[in-house]
From TrEMBL:
One family name in Pfam for this protein: Condensation
Protein name: Non-ribosomal peptide synthetase
Domain of life the protein comes from: Bacteria
Gene Ontology molecular function terms on file: catalytic activity
Condensation domain: residues covered: 3-76
Gene3D superfamilies: N-terminal domain of ligase-like, Nonribosomal peptide synthetase, condensation domain
Species of provenance: Pseudomonas aeruginosa
Segments traversing the membrane: none
Lineage per the UniProt record: Bacteria, Pseudomonadati, Pseudomonadota, Gammaproteobacteria, Pseudomonadales
Length: 126
């Protein structure tokens, strides 16, 4: 549960999260002169999404867990791609390296000073 306290904000934004019985609770206090309510509500939803993901997958790193729900993520991705362009499907760099490793595994892929790395070695370390 996320409570929005009506107290006066001492800081621009304060988010406290704490255990309450067998649940997590949070309170959010913000400066109304700096933040719109809708912005804070989105922030609260992202925090809730993160906490739910932590509870579902406690072994995963926090940076790998989602802040956005699926609908918000899809909306942002759709807005981001306004080009309407279909790009040709070309191989990625790692695919090109793997292909070269199959053709000429002993050929030098990386040279740094006296150190050399063949395509075969590079591909095996990928």
């Amino acid at each position: 549960a996320l409570e929005r306290a009506s107290a006066t904000a001492q800081f621009d934004l304060t988010l406290d999260t704490y255990e309450s019985g067998d649940a997590l609770s949070a309170s959010l206090i913000y400066a109304t002169s700096l933040f719109e309510r809708s912005t804070v509500e989105r922030l609260a939803a992202h925090w809730r999404n993160l906490l739910e993901a932590i509870c579902r997958e406690p072994a995963r790193r926090v940076g790998e867990l989602p802040l956005l729900d699926r609908s918000e993520r899809d909306l942002l991705l759709a807005r981001r791609d306004q080009t309407g362009e279909d790009y040709p499907s070309r191989p990625f760099v790692h695919q090109l390296v793997a292909e070269q490793a199959r053709r000429a595994p002993e050929a030098i892929a990386v040279l740094f000073g006296e150190q050399r790395l063949s395509y075969g070695e590079l591909d095996s370390q990928a």
